[in-house]
Design a protein that fits this description.
This protein has four helices and three strands; from the N terminus they run αβααββα. With about 120 residues, the protein is mainly α. The termini are far apart.
Length: about 120
């Protein structure tokens, strides 16, 4: 990790919107509407993000170095110049992985105490 960036764990816990955006960008670069669609689909509609939430989160994430705006569309079939495409940075991926480990640990603790069944 470059010296310019803090320890990924120093940004935890992540806001739900931030984590969901990072997960949406984990497998491929996307434009804003595609990010919103991916989140809604992956969460069976339980998490629906407004455009205002998405773009204010992305603005903050750009400042933090978690995501980057792409100069060109990763989709050769797309010619809509209004669309802005985003990708996760190496630092953003490290932060997302740290948050996933944190959430996994919390789930393990809940299972160990019997709060939730061990086989869920």
């Amino acid at each position: 990790m470059p010296k310019d960036f803090p320890d990924p764990e120093s940004l935890l816990p992540l806001q739900t919107a931030t984590f969901q955006i990072l997960v949406a960008l984990a497998d491929r670069d996307r434009h804003g509407y595609s990010i919103m669609q991916d989140i809604a689909e992956r969460t069976d509609g339980k998490v629906r993000m407004s455009a205002a939430t998405l773009y204010s989160s992305i603005r903050r994430m750009l400042e933090q170095g978690l995501v980057k705006e792409l100069r060109e569309s990763p989709d050769p079939d797309s010619n809509d110049e209004r669309r802005r495409y985003y990708g996760v940075t190496d630092f953003g991926r490290s932060v997302a992985m740290a948050e996933a480990r944190r959430l996994t640990n919390m789930l393990s603790q809940a299972r160990e105490t019997g709060l939730i069944p061990k086989k869920l």
